[in-house]
Design goal:
heterodimer; A: 55 residues; mainly alpha; 1 helix; 0% strand; B: 524 residues
């Protein structure tokens, strides 16, 4: 392999796989937010239409 | 009121890992293995890295986030999510569902071929002439040179039986649900795919001639950077490879709980997809270098992309190398796993859309779509003209269907209904990695402009010369007809009455409310 080809290969792998490792490390160090806006508890009330009573 | 008339709660991925693996399973497909290496080689080699990375950052990741935001905020498959943006946009959702329907029908056939070749590789059944074996013996491709039929219903048993099996397995996975089916399949197959493909790449790197192959792939042609076509190819590769803009990522992100990180996992998914492409580049070009050395040719004289690479060139490589059977099994096993997890995600889009629009149970929706699409798939693609139909439909649905869908999505959501600030607020409110105002420029300008250029160019080329030297009347029906089918299908599905839940309040509210106490005060 020529020197330029080797350099390009190393650069490509370092940038892309390095980016992947950085993304994983960042996510592992802070997987979720600690504070959210109020609401959004997953009890599925927001998925449903308003309940209608037939009285 | 009666509890049993309410729909069951929305399904949910059990956590971040399940979601990330499923999204990777969707993004990593056949295109990563058989498209990326060839595209990189033909568009500047090592220099392709520059436009590729720029395209990833300015188009791939931003449009991935757009899909995530739509699905997560509006909690639905494509039609329901778009309907909650604006009523009539449900049509755009169904257009994306139609794309998935068409892709699934032929994608299943390719997965079935790979499964057959997985079995063939143990006995090196293709012998000395893989090309004749694939087209002649396996597909029994009808000779379409002269007055021969363009469409036949002569079934080929060796294609039909694996294809039926693929459909049965995918139906079983979808029927088992998001957690026990989709997520479980990905949690098993994605690590297995990485191990199998990783082993294949390591083996390929130690073949004679591997260095020549890598030299061909990575030697930069810097003048390619001045060529607009190279930039378009880079945007196209990133765009097609990430499985964005046809409903998959909208659907998957709608199965995450509301309080869950979106952008952080999104970055992991995007870089995993590109990382796998790099791995495929190493493996494929090492192997191509080996074959070129063995057969005394150069890499560019071999089939380096698509069906030709997978089913003609690779079998030839397997035959030439010591202990080739194992290498072949790893390659075709990887193709099956990569393709199958993508097929599952494509069909989940259809399943979610049917469940939501027609208020169907999951089992009913899956049996309907599996029965109808499976039957069409088997009828159209296990015949002696299956390959030609596949090639044509694939070209049109990708280069026109998906590109058009993405343009419409950006223009309508960002420009016409001005939802970008709301979607950005949503992502930032639930995510760890915050996105800045640069995102507006990407999804509002860079992505649509690049895609419009691509679309115009493709249409002009296809008007000038028929695709693949096929018959022009055939292309009119099979190619342009496919695009018409996408539009008509979308309108037909849209015309039915919406039977699912209608009222919906997106969380968190936008414009944002600072504090519950403040909200109480304000509402008095």
């Amino acid at each position: 392999m020529s020197t330029t080809a080797i350099i390009m290969m190393v650069v490509a792998l370092v940038v892309v796989w390095g980016g992947l490792i950085l993304a994983i490390v960042a996510l592992r160090s802070r997987p979720e937010r600690t504070e959210f806006p109020p609401g959004g508890e997953d009890d599925h009330r927001e998925d449903q239409a308003v309940i209608e009573h037939d009285t | 009121m009666s509890a049993q008339h309410q729909a069951p709660p929305r399904e949910q991925f059990t956590g971040q890992v399940g979601f990330i693996l499923s999204a990777i399973g969707s993004a990593v497909g056949l295109g990563n293995i058989w498209r990326f290496p060839g595209v990189a080689y033909e568009n500047g080699g090592g220099a392709f890295l520059v436009p590729y990375l720029i395209a990833l950052l300015t188009a791939g990741i931003p449009i991935l986030f757009l899909d995530y935001a739509l699905g997560h905020r509006f909690r639905g498959g494509a039609p329901q999510a778009f309907r909650r943006v604006k009523g009539w946009l449900e049509t755009l959702g169904w257009f994306q569902v139609m794309i998935c329907i068409v892709i699934a029908i032929y994608y299943a056939a390719v997965v079935a071929w790979a499964a057959s070749f997985f079995v063939y590789s143990f006995g090196l059944d293709w012998g000395d002439d893989p090309e004749a074996f694939f087209f002649g013996e396996h597909l029994q491709l009808a000779d379409v040179g002269g007055a021969d039929p363009w469409l036949t219903f002569d079934f080929v048993g060796a294609v039909l039986i694996p294809l039926v099996l693929v459909w049965l397995v995918v139906i079983a996975v979808l029927a088992a649900g998001v957690v026990k089916g989709v997520q479980r399949a990905n949690v098993i197959f994605i690590p297995l795919l990485l191990i199998a493909f990783g082993a294949l790449v390591v083996r390929a790197l130690f073949l004679d001639g591997a260095a020549d192959g890598l030299n061909a792939l990575f030697t930069p042609q810097w003048d390619a950077l001045a060529d607009p076509d190279v930039w378009i190819a880079a945007y196209g590769q990133v765009f097609f490879s990430l499985s964005v803009a046809f409903g998959i990522m909208i659907t998957y992100s709608s199965y995450r709980k509301r309080r869950s990180n979106m952008t952080g996992p999104g970055l992991v998914v995007a870089f995993s997809n590109s990382g796998f492409e790099m791995l495929a580049g190493l493996g494929v070009f090492s192997a191509l270098g080996f074959l070129a050395l063995e057969s005394g040719t150069t890499v560019d004289e071999l089939g380096i992309a698509g069906v030709g690479l997978a089913f003609v060139t690779f079998p030839a490589i397997v035959s030439e190398m010591p202990a080739g059977a194992l290498f072949g099994a790893l390659f075709f096993g990887s193709l099956v796993m990569a393709g199958f997890t993508s097929l599952v995600s494509i069909l989940q889009v259809v399943s979610a859309a049917l469940q939501e629009k027609f208020a169907l149970s999951r089992t009913t929706a899956v049996l309907w779509l599996g029965g109808v699409l499976g039957a069409v798939s088997v009828l159209g693609f296990s015949t002696t003209t299956g390959l030609i139909l596949l090639d044509t439909v694939d070209y049109w649905v990708n280069n026109m269907g998906i590109v058009l869908s993405a343009i419409l999505m950006c223009v309508l959501v960002v420009w016409v209904y001005r939802k970008a600030p709301e979607l950005r607020y949503h992502l930032n409110a639930v995510s760890t990695a915050q996105i800045g105002a640069w995102w507006y420029a990407c999804v509002g300008a860079i992505v649509p402009v690049m895609l419009v250029v691509m679309l115009v160019q493709t249409v002009m080329i296809r008007i000038d010369e028929p695709y693949g030297d096929y018959d022009e009347t055939y292309l009119l029906y099979a190619g342009w007809g496919t695009v018409a089918l996408l539009v008509v299908g979308a309108l037909v599905f849209w015309a039915f009455r919406w039977r699912g839940p209608r009222e919906y309040r997106a969380w968190p509210p936008y414009p944002p409310v600072e504090d519950p106490a403040v909200r109480k005060e304000a509402s008095r």
